């Protein structure tokens, strides 16, 4: 079974890198330091080390409180939810030109809901016999 990637970097003591670039909880750079020093700082302040950028040289970690980690996870989830999904969802609705008023209102509400959900809506009107 494939390993699940953490929602927001690695948190805590399992750090595979020897040299890290550390940022404190206020966003100020503490510079490059050895993993042991970073863990000692983490323990002294009661914080967690969170991986921000793995591709940087050296990898960037930030000291964060549990509250900051939670807020960042919520922010990232919101951003991901807002990003467009691959493949556009298209909804299609067709009705007769002799549709009753209440049926027309119901279908109009449905179309409004689809548009609010950012779906593409295609409406077809058939001519009554």
The tally of strands reads 6
Categorize the overall geometry. Answer: rod-shaped
CATH superfamily placement of the largest domain: Translation initiation factor 3 (IF-3), N-terminal domain
The helix/strand class is alpha/beta
The largest sheet is: 4 strands, mixed
Give average pLDDT, whole number. 82
The unreliable regions are 1-6
Rg estimate, integer Å: 26 Å
Task: State the strand order across the main sheet.
Answer: 2-1-4-3
In angstroms, what separates the terminal alpha carbons? Answer: 58 Å
Listing every helix as H and every strand as E from the N terminus to the C terminus, the arrangement reads EEHEEHEHE
Percent helix, as a range, is 25-40%
Strand content: 25-35%
How many domains in all? Answer: 2
Number of helices: 3
The assigned CATH architecture of the largest domain is: Roll
Keywords: Initiation factor, Protein biosynthesis
Protein name: IF3M factor
Domain Translation initiation factor 3 N-terminal: 11-78
GO molecular function, one term: ribosome binding
Write a structural description.
9% of the residues are buried. Helix content is 34%, strand content 28%. It has helices at residues 35-45, 66-82, 101-116, and strands at 19-23, 29-34, 48-53, 60-64, 90-96, 120-126. A hairpin with a 5-residue loop joins strand 1 and strand 2. The chain starts with 18 loop residues before the first strand and ends with a strand. It folds into two domains: 19-82, Roll (Ubiquitin-like (UB roll)); 90-126, Translation initiation factor 3 (IF-3), C-terminal domain (Translation Initiation Factor IF3), CATH 3.30.110. A four-stranded mixed β-sheet has the order 2-1-4-3. A two-stranded parallel sheet has the order 5-6. The chain has three helices and six strands; from the N terminus they run E-E-H-E-E-H-E-H-E. Mean pLDDT is 82; it is low at 1-6. It is α/β, with parallel strands linked by helices and 129 residues long.
